[in-house]
Design a protein that fits this description.
heterodimer, A: 6-stranded mixed sheet, B: about 110 residues, mainly beta, 4-stranded antiparallel sheet
Chain lengths: ~110, ~110
């Protein structure tokens, strides 16, 4: 069995300040973990993925995430928020990265204040 | 046009209506997917097609009927829907069945059932 919990439904940050979006997971296997972003009226776009290689994963647009097995966490961070980062972010877990048995989180809406 | 397109972008229908959602991908992919994104709920995989053949139906009610006439087009035929079926329906495609990270998503159709 597996699950993913995004701890905050909404996060608000000022432009230029750090972003932290939290994700905790549970899985009976070694999971593959992903972060997706969804801008208004757009489809989901892959930000980054972890598939048991390096625990610190760098993605697009300056985002990165660290896989911490001891804490069962995969938090998404960015040093400095831009207005264009305002969107909804989804944490995703699968047992092996495959399309089956994929579990999406409920999403975190990021607001960036000028 | 490139990527994955979905029409219509918005649809309002009564419970007795019959309507169809259309998805088209211009990426030369072989696999296509329908997802349902309800408010405050995780994204749910509904159907999967590979080379026009349905490979997965995640216990979706029969009032949703998918059709894949070729690898570039995917339809979702709707009839006798319920208000709880109101959601954003996302289509995705990938070169082959495999990693969820390889899927390209369309912008979705926002469906409201009255």
């Amino acid at each position: 069995a597996q699950s993913v919990t995004q701890l905050d439904s909404h996060v608000s940050v000022s432009e230029g300040t750090p972003v932290l979006l939290r994700c905790n997971y549970s899985s009976s296997y070694s999971p593959s973990l992903f972060w997706y972003v969804q801008h208004p009226n757009k489809g989901l776009q892959l930000l980054l993925k972890y598939t048991s290689a390096a625990t610190l994963v760098k993605g697009i647009n300056g985002f990165e995430a660290e896989f911490k097995k001891s804490e069962t966490s995969f938090h998404l961070t960015k040093p400095s928020a831009h207005m264009s980062d305002a969107a909804e972010y989804f944490c995703v877990v699968t047992p092996s990265g495959g399309y089956q048995k994929v579990t999406f989180g409920t999403g975190t809406k990021l607001q960036v204040i000028p | 046009e490139t990527g994955v397109t979905q029409t219509p972008r918005h649809l309002v229908m009564g419970m007795t209506n019959k309507k169809s959602l259309k998805c088209e991908q211009h990426l030369g992919h072989n696999a296509m997917y329908w997802y349902k994104q309800s408010a405050k709920k995780p994204l749910e995989l509904m159907f999967v097609y590979n080379f026009k053949e349905q490979t997965e139906n995640n216990s979706v009610p029969s009032r949703f009927s998918p059709e894949c006439p070729n690898s570039s087009h995917l339809f979702l035929h709707l009839h006798t829907l319920q208000p709880e079926d109101s959601a954003l329906y996302l289509c995705a495609s990938s070169q082959d069945l495999g990693e969820v990270a390889t899927q390209y998503f369309g912008p979705g159709t926002r469906l409201t059932v009255l």
